[in-house]
Every structure is written in structure tokens, then in C-alpha cells.
Specification:
The structure holds two protein chains of two kinds.
Chain A (H helix, E strand, L loop, with lengths): L1 H22 L6 E7 L4 H17 L3 E7 L2 H13 L5 E5 L5 H5 L7 H4 L2 H5 L1 H7 E2 L2 E2 L2 E5 L2 E6 H6 L8 H13 L3 E3 L7 H24 L8 H16 L11 H10 L2 E7 L3 H6 L7 E4 L11 E3 L2 E5 L7 H12 L1 H7 L20 H12 L4 E3 L2 H4 L2 H16 L4 H15 L2
Parallel strand pairs in A: 1-2, 1-3, 8-9, 11-13
Antiparallel strand pairs in A: 3-12, 4-5, 6-12, 7-9, 7-10
Chain B lengths: L1 H11 L2 H4 L1 H31 L2 E2 L7 E2 L3 H7 L2 H17 L2 H12 L6 H13 L2 H12 L5 H8 L14 H26 L3 H9 L4 H12 L1 H16 L3 H6 L11 H9 L7 H32 L1
Antiparallel strand pairs in B: 1-2
Classes of the chains: A alpha/beta, B mainly alpha.
């Protein structure tokens, strides 16, 4: 039996090798070590499948894939970039990669971007560029926006709001019916960052927002205060669920599922759990965050997840081939479809899956976000500033009267962090 | 003839043989000492050194002298953490009388007492993380048992873990659950050693209930009390896992203690300030030093008294 198994595996390997060699002219050999943070069930399956397909193309290549818990990964990356380095590692775009770029731990891979890739990935090239060089490649991104209970809106005779006034009057109608307008769980802080991103980009525009994140404006300024004043209007109405400081974002979902809250401001990753909880397309819908200040162009948050090559990697050529494979139009179509990640492909030549939310999101980002595309509060601002900032945002949501103290604290932190 | 053999044997004994009595204990201690140096003593001094640096853990460190301490001096988050540390120290000690009370309750011979004892000891066996999770659900403002119970007697829901006024007390209550069990087991073994003759004598002299407890039983439990005090203080200063799992330091940092704050600034997702973290560690070390000195001093006294 054992012998038979061995023999059949050998034949299988041979067969795979044959097809692989046919499919690709120059087969890679040696090792490729991949560390990935795609630990949630669907992303994990996608990553494993992606590595397996790359392995089929290069049968002589020994691929070693390690998947690490997404939260634990964020602290472990520091260790494994300096010792025991993989050839490919996941991370995030924009300022979030700054500490590793500055420390020389990420490889400059501008050469991978040369030629057609820059055109195909034009929409995310900016997010991968620091100091004029590219430090990694994106593999997926997703839109943010308001996911709402269509059936509740219809029941109350409400339309998708296009302006802040409509947003507020909708909210008042929802509150009058005994529900909350928005669910949110701020236990891990970053969800509040999403609200600030949108309120600030709608109030002051993308340019001001990105300059604020880069430390070029004071927090205690008329512009930022205007943003908080708008936010305060919603807080004073009681628009958000009570006790949000106790919940993670996952724990805040039951409120929208049960209908106690009518909407949530969230990335597209919220769709999968909401659908699983029983909200089908007749109950769940999406709208772009409404305009607040008519003078500023609409801009969106669309966080990009990435692959990088650590500078200490042993097999850089294999790693570069893998990055090219990840970003290829065909692979992008496949891994971002509804059966896999359910997000947006980064390659312009790929096709978006036939899914209501993906199509709406893709259209919004490609045609109705003239102001620009931001990453997210904790990816645009340096890590330390993001931490202090998001803590202040959470405090503001609970104690809006503390605004002066919060802004002073943020400015003090900014002075140290951006110097 | 026999004499000479013995004498030459003595003079030819190796250096080790001659000093065996003095050297052997050190030989046995060497592995322990090495590990204690590498993992405890040397890192303490390294922390002192790192606390004078501005270092993100990756790039080139930069010496900034006392600037980290100067920043600590007017950092509100630091004072919140420090204050919470003192609340933890004070309230965690409640585990000692609570443990004594339960131990007295269980220190009898009735049918099935072993089962009761194990049930009371149970919370100490399960992991702190599990305790944190269970209490997190218990406190849940919407679905948790705690608020359902409050609602039954007509009190409004309290968001224990989301309200800066209650959060630290809520976590301490969760921590007291296993810590009380720990103290209980210490006292149960202590009670076995109480001299029945003294109890008998006290009873003949007319001592009852509280007087009996306070003047006869508790003094005999002194060794158990000392150990309970030590482990409770250590437990209070290590209160990291419960905070991490129940609130992650929130809401807006109001449930942090020094050890959690140190972790946050130096090692967490957004933390890149090894120097600042080390400065917090040094402050925490100085607080611990007060207790360490006290423990060592009382242990020294006890040894001397024998």
C-alpha cells in the first residue's frame, strides 16, 4: 500500500511537473518562504490555493507557506524581519510600512514595477511609494462606505442620503422609530478612525486630510474643529449604539442584524459576516458616505493589503516572480472574486466579480472619488500618532465635552512624533 | 605502613576533594545563577540603559538622556496607569480575607467536602484568559448576566467595561475570583497545621468565635498569610492578561496599568518606543523594589530568628 502510494505520488508529481513546464517557459527552483497574515478562513484558503497554483507552475520550487494569526502578525513582523527572514511577507500600504522602509528591512522593488506593471496597478502605485520608490505590491483592496438595512429604510420611507442634512434627517426618522442609526464597536479603536476619516474628508477635503495625517496641520485648528462639530451633531442626536466602547467590530454586528441599528460605516469585509448572519441582498444595501461640504470633492478610504520582500530574504528572484504572479490580471480576478476574498482586484485588466457590493464599490472608487483615495487613519498616520489619535476619537465619542483636552493632547503628541 | 598510606592520601587529595564542602553548593547553583543573571539581573540593567535612548527597536538608537523620564513626568496616560496600579494593589489584597473566610467555611469534615473544595479551587486552575473572557461576557451591557441581574432588581444597565469610572474595578473583581481561590488553598493547608491543643485551651478559657479566630487561629496562620500576601502583591503587579483580554486598556486608556502601558508603547501593534517603554519599566521596577525589599527583609528576620 505504502509503496503504491509513493509510486502514485511520484507519477502525479511528474504529471504536474510536465504541465507546469509547459505552462511556463522558465521554471524556478530552490526555495520560497512565505509568511502570511491571511488567517481568517476565506483569506487563508485563498492564500493556500495561490501558493499551490504557483507551485504547480514551478514544480522544482519548494514553497514553504506559514500563516500567522492576523493580530499576532502585527507584532511578530518586527522579529522575523530582523532574524529568520522569509522571502515574501504580507503587510499594509502607505505610512504603515514606513518603520520597516526606514529601517531598511523592506527591499526596494522598483524594478518589479518597471514597465507594464506600473500601468496595470496605477490606482495603487501611490500607496506603495515612499521616497519615490516602490516597496511592495498590492494584492487586494476594498471600499469603505455605509452598509444599511434596506428593509428598514423602505419601511420608514427613507432614501439613500446624498447630503449631510439628508443623512441627519434620515437618522432622526430612524431614532423616532426606536432604533439607532449606526452601530459601531470601538473597543479596538480603529473603527472610530473610519468615522473621522470620512467626516474630515467630507468637511475639509482629501488634501487637508492627508496633510493632517502627515503632520502638516495642527489638530487644534478651525478645520478640524469643524469636523468634530459635525460629528458632535450626530453624537448629540444619539445616532450611535450605546456602550460601543465594550464591543469589537464583530460584536457590533448583531445590532444591525437584529434591526436595532439601521446602518454601519465599514469596509467591504463586513458584507460576508452580515450575509452569513442572514441579511441577503434584499435587506442589505450600500451607499457612499454623503457629501457634507459641497466645495470639496468626494474622496474615499480604500485600504490596500500588500506583499513585500524583506531585505534579508534569501531567494529574492523567486520572491519577485511570486509578486508578479500575485498581481497578474488573471490571478487578481481569481483571488478577489466572491468565492475567495470578495474584494477589489488591484490590476486594471482584471474583472470585478459579479457581486452587488463589489460592483458598486468599484464604480464608486473609479468614477465617484475625484478627491483621491486614502488608505485609512492608522495606515496614513504614523503608528504612534494613529494610536494616540484613535484613543482621542474614542474619548470624543463618549465625552464630546473633552474636545479641547483631546486636541491639545494630540498636538503635543504630534509635535514629538513628526519632528 | 598503614599510616603512611593515609597521610600521603590526604596530601595528594585533589583541590576539589579538599574544598568539596564549600564548592559543591556553588556547582549546583551555577546553572540557576547563570539563568537568573541572563534573564533577570542583566535585563534590569539593560532596561536602565534603554530608558535613556530614543529607539524604535529597528533602526539606530539615539541617546537622549533623561528625556523619556521628563516626558513621563507630564504624561496623563502614565498617571492614569500609575493610579490604577495602586487601586489594583489595594483592592487585590481583599483576596486574603476572602480566602481566609472561605477556607474557614470549608475546613470541616462533612460528606462531600472534597468536592466543594475542588469547586472553590476551580477558578484558579483555569487560565486567566478564560477568566477574562467569561467576565467579559458576564459584564456585557446588552446581553450579559450582570446587567440582566441588575435589571431584575430595577437598576439600569451599567456598561462596566466601557465606562472609565467602573472599568478598573470590574477587572479587579474578575481577578479576585481566581486569586481568592489561591489564598483559600494556602489557608486550608495552613489550617491543618493549627495546634488543636491551643484551640482546646482557648476554649477552656472561654474564647469564642471572633476572639478565638483573631487571637488564636490567625496568629498561627502567619506563615500562610505571608505567602498569600506575597503572591497577591505579585498577582496585582502582573495584572496584564486580564486587562489585555477584557478591555485592551480601554476605554480610551482608562484601564491601563503600568505593565500594560509599557507593552503598548514598546511592543504592541502601534508601539515603536523601546526607550519610553523601558522608562516605564524602570518606574514599575522601583515600585516593585519597595515590596521586594520588604519581603527579603522579613525573610531575613525569620531566618535569623530560628
Amino acid at each position: 500500500m505504502h509503496k503504491f502510494l509513493k509510486a502514485s505520488t511520484a507519477t502525479l508529481a511528474l504529471a504536474v511537473a510536465a504541465t507546469g513546464a509547459n505552462a511556463d517557459g522558465h521554471a524556478l527552483s530552490g526555495d520560497l518562504v512565505i509568511f502570511s497574515d491571511m488567517s481568517n478562513p476565506a483569506p487563508r484558503a485563498t492564500m493556500e490555493d495561490m501558493a499551490a497554483r504557483f507551485g504547480e507552475m514551478h514544480p522544482d520550487l519548494n514553497i514553504e507557506l506559514t500563516i500567522i494569526d492576523r493580530e499576532a502578525y502585527k507584532t511578530q513582523i518586527r522579529n522575523f524581519l530582523t532574524a529568520n527572514t522569509p522571502d515574501v511577507a504580507n503587510w499594509y500600504a502607505a505610512n504603515r510600512m514606513r518603520p520597516y522602509v526606514d529601517a531598511g528591512l523592506f527591499e526596494d522593488i522598483s524594478d518589479v514595477w518597471e514597465g507594464t506593471l506600473s500601468e496595470e496597478l496605477a490606482s495603487t502605485k501611490g500607496a506603495m511609494t515612499l521616497d519615490g520608490k516602490q516597496w511592495g505590491v498590492p494584492y487586494t483592496y476594498y471600499q469603505w462606505g455605509v452598509y444599511y438595512r434596506k428593509d428598514i429604510y423602505e419601511e420608514l420611507g427613507l432614501k439613500e442620503p446624498a447630503t449631510f442634512d439628508e443623512m441627519k434627517s434620515n437618522c432622526q426618522a430612524i431614532l423616532d422609530s426606536g432604533k439607532k442609526c449606526y452601530t459601531i464597536g470601538t473597543k479596538f479603536l480603529w473603527t472610530a478612525g473610519g468615522w473621522f476619516d470620512y467626516l474630515n474628508m467630507r468637511t475639509n477635503g482629501y488634501d487637508f486630510h492627508s496633510e493632517l495625517m502627515a503632520g502638516k496641520h495642527k489638530w487644534d485648528s478651525d478645520e478640524v474643529r469643524a469636523t468634530f462639530a459635525n460629528w458632535r451633531e450626530l453624537l448629540d442626536m444619539g445616532a450611535f449604539v450605546d456602550n460601543h466602547t465594550s464591543y469589537s467590530w464583530q460584536e457590533s454586528l448583531p445590532f444591525i442584524v437584529s434591526g436595532e441599528a439601521a446602518a454601519i460605516l465599514k469596509g467591504n469585509f463586513a458584507v460576508a459576516p452580515l450575509r452569513e448572519a442572514g441579511l441577503d441582498d434584499s435587506k442589505l444595501d450600500f451607499y457612499q458616505f454623503p457629501s457634507i461640504n459641497g466645495d470639496v470633492a468626494l474622496a474615499e478610504d480604500a485600504p490596500t493589503d500588500t506583499f513585500h520582500i524583506p531585505s534579508g530574504a534569501a531567494n529574492k528572484d523567486n520572491a519577485k516572480a511570486f509578486l508578479k504572479f500575485v498581481t497578474s490580471a488573471e490571478n487578481q480576478t481569481l483571488i478577489n472574486n466572491g468565492a475567495n476574498l470578495g474584494q477589489l482586484p488591484v490590476n486594471a485588466n482584471s474583472s470585478v466579480d459579479d457581486d452587488k457590493f463589489l460592483k458598486e464599490g468599484f464604480e464608486m472608487l473609479s468614477s465617484n472619488s475625484p478627491g483621491g483615495v486614502a488608505q485609512f487613519f492608522d495606515r496614513d498616520a504614523p503608528a504612534e500618532m494613529a494610536k494616540v489619535g484613535m484613543e482621542g476619537l474614542q474619548e470624543f465619542m463618549v465625552k464630546p465635552d473633552n474636545l479641547d483636552k483631546i486636541l491639545a493632547r494630540l498636538d503635543k503628541a504630534a509635535e514629538r512624533i513628526y519632528k | 605502613m598503614a599510616d603512611t598510606t593515609v597521610s600521603t592520601g590526604t596530601s595528594q587529595r585533589s583541590w576539589y576533594k579538599r574544598n568539596e564542602i564549600a564548592v559543591t553548593p556553588w556547582l549546583f547553583l551555577i546553572p540557576g545563577i547563570i539563568f537568573f543573571m541572563v534573564y533577570v539581573i542583566i535585563p534590569i540593567f539593560q532596561s536602565f540603559y534603554y530608558s535613556t535612548l530614543s529607539w524604535d527597536g529597528l533602526g539606530e538608537p539615539q541617546n537622549i538622556g533623561m528625556a523619556n523620564y521628563a516626558e513621563l513626568w507630564d504624561d496623563d496616560a502614565f498617571y492614569t496607569s500609575l493610579w490604577n496600579n495602586f487601586i489594583w494593589l489595594a483592592l487585590y489584597l481583599l483576596a486574603i480575607p476572602a480566602g481566609l473566610f472561605i477556607a474557614l467555611l470549608l475546613n470541616q469534615t462533612i460528606w462531600g467536602i472534597r468536592l466543594y473544595k475542588s469547586l472553590f479551587f476551580f477558578p484558579f486552575v483555569i487560565s486567566q484568559v478564560v477568566v477574562g473572557l467569561v467576565f467579559g461576557w458576564f459584564y456585557d451591557p446588552t446581553f450579559g448576566l450582570f446587567n440582566i441581574a441588575l435589571g431584575a432588581i430595577g437598576l439600569g444597565p451599567i456598561n462596566v467595561l466601557g465606562d472609565e469610572a467602573y472599568v478598573t474595578y470590574g477587572i479587579i473583581a474578575a481577578g479576585l475570583w481566581p486569586q481568592t481561590a489561591y489564598c483559600m488553598i494556602l489557608y486550608l493547608t495552613g489550617l491543618n497545621a493549627v495546634d488543636p491543643e491551643q484551640i482546646e485551651a482557648a476554649r477552656l478559657d472561654g474564647a469564642k468565635r471572633l476572639k478565638m479566630l483573631w487571637y488564636v487561629v490567625v496568629p498561627q496562620l502567619k506563615p500562610a498569610t505571608f505567602i498569600a500576601f506575597v503572591v497577591t502583591i505579585i498577582g496585582a503587579l502582573r495584572s496584564f492578561d486580564l486587562i489585555s483580554i477584557m478591555t485592551n486598556g480601554g476605554p480610551f486608556g482608562s484601564s491601563r496599568v503600568l505593565s500594560f502601558y509599557m507593552f503598548e508603547v514598546a511592543l504592541s501593534e502601534y508601539g515603536f518606543r523601546m526607550g519610553y517603554g523601558a522608562a516605564i519599566a524602570v518606574v514599575l521596577f522601583l515600585i516593585m523594589l519597595v515590596f521586594i525589599t520588604y519581603f527579603l527583609y522579613s525573610m531575613y528576620n525569620e531566618e535569623k530568628g530560628r
